[in-house]
Amino acid sequence: WARAVRGLLLDVSGVLYDSGGDGGVPIAGSVEAVRRIKASGLKLQFCTNETQATREKFVKKLQGLGFDISVAEVTAPAPAACRLLKERGLRPHLLVHNDLVPEFAEIDKANPNCVVIGDAAENFTYANLNEAFRVLIGMEKPVLISLGKGRYYKETDGLKLDVGAYMKALEYACDVEAEVVGKPAKMFFESALAEMGVPAEQAIMIGDDIVSDVGGAQQCGMRALQVRTGKYRPCDENHPQVKPDAYVNNLAEAVDIILQQL
Amino acid sequence: WARAVRGLLLDVSGVLYDSGGDGGVPIAGSVEAVRRIKASGLKLQFCTNETQATREKFVKKLQGLGFDISVAEVTAPAPAACRLLKERGLRPHLLVHNDLVPEFAEIDKANPNCVVIGDAAENFTYANLNEAFRVLIGMEKPVLISLGKGRYYKETDGLKLDVGAYMKALEYACDVEAEVVGKPAKMFFESALAEMGVPAEQAIMIGDDIVSDVGGAQQCGMRALQVRTGKYRPCDENHPQVKPDAYVNNLAEAVDIILQQL
């Protein structure tokens, strides 16, 4: 599986670091692994569903943890959502993390005709969920745009429900299907590949989420590895639908194997 | 549809009264309609998915609004859940309204091996949802019991997400299917019919929820009416799956028609 590779897509949380209220901690070997990928000449793009911060803030945090990463190397859902909103003349009611709001600064939000939901974390209050619900149910044809459909993720203080769970709550209440921007949407992986300028057959996705990372990338024709870090659980290895091209203990091990094949 | 009736099942919120933080207000004509049903000799049972209070407290509130109602006449999800927990030796982690907790006083809750979710309202905090999720995902085979699967309901200050939405969030996050106690579960309607001692063919359900009330009762072989009060919305009349035996403007009109046929 490690042959004929020209580019890597890396998930961030659970692969590079474990996030948490304290800013998070790097996963052993990952800082060095990113450096080795860049030194090898392989193309690299970070492909994240992170929606708790602007890309600028997100990148600063990762740089603070020692990672060699820049804003241009990050593919994230909020900018993709903004493109979609502009194309379709949609004015969002936002149910997102406070720190993500600046990504929507250019977007008209008066008299909303859709709801955009991200990983709002502490903003997932009973009041805010009811408010987003009322905006949706008040539309003739509710439009719900979700910045990902992750089930849960791991922070240093434990597992947390991800945006997908709250998306499902609103979908059920309003009897609609959300449009998902972010992994595992095909368009999202394709725009990350386009950023690298590498075709799917020559790219490998490395992630900790069996469905969003591995399943999504394989649907696009990429190879995909699951790391045994982050939200990985042993039962993922018996997943009924998705089978990674390989399991690796962590990013460092994946990079070892890939660089040996170059 | 009004012939050969011996018993009525009445939904409460949206049929008898509109609930709200202030205790709610009776729907015009409903207090008198309940009195007329009782005077007619028809059997009567109140069949509610109310899980924001013990039956005792719930009945007291309705009596305060002028309704002739007693605890024995109320079929509600929490006692049904307690029977199920005892039968199966389950120890619940509760995600319910504070005022419902006394219904579970007799139940062993140490070292939980299932999660029971009700309409927790203000208790649907980000922290409480994460906690219930962690209990579930920590089980080898997660068991989620839901006191209803309603999408939303109307209070005097607006529409609110109901337990079904939060149930869907946990179902998705844990990849499980909840066991629903309460409407529209068949067993729940059957126990209400048993309380009245009336067979399904001779009973009519009257409710404002097209799926939980009308669809659920029809699945049990009852006739079912939808009132145009409470959470009723005009688009319910084009529901793709469920067609009530009749629409009525309110409970009073339903009772007029039924009593004329006696």
TrEMBL record, chains A, B:
Q: What is its EC number?
A: 3.6.1.1
Record keywords, A-Z: Cytoplasm, Hydrolase, Magnesium, Metal-binding, Nucleus
Cite a GO CC annotation. cytosol
Required co-factors? Mg(2+)
Q: Which Pfam families match?
A: Hydrolase_6, Hydrolase_like
Query: What organism does the UniProt record list as the source?
Result: Galbula dea
Record gene name: Lhpp
**Family from the record:** Belongs to the HAD-like hydrolase superfamily.
Q: Where in the cell is it found?
A: Cytoplasm; Nucleus
Entry protein name: Phospholysine phosphohistidine inorganic pyrophosphate phosphatase
Q: What is the role of this chain?
A: Phosphatase that hydrolyzes imidodiphosphate, 3-phosphohistidine and 6-phospholysine. Has broad substrate specificity and can also hydrolyze inorganic diphosphate, but with lower efficiency.
Q: What catalytic activity is recorded?
A: diphosphate + H2O = 2 phosphate + H(+)
Q: Which GO terms describe its molecular function?
A: inorganic diphosphate phosphatase activity; metal ion binding; phosphatase activity
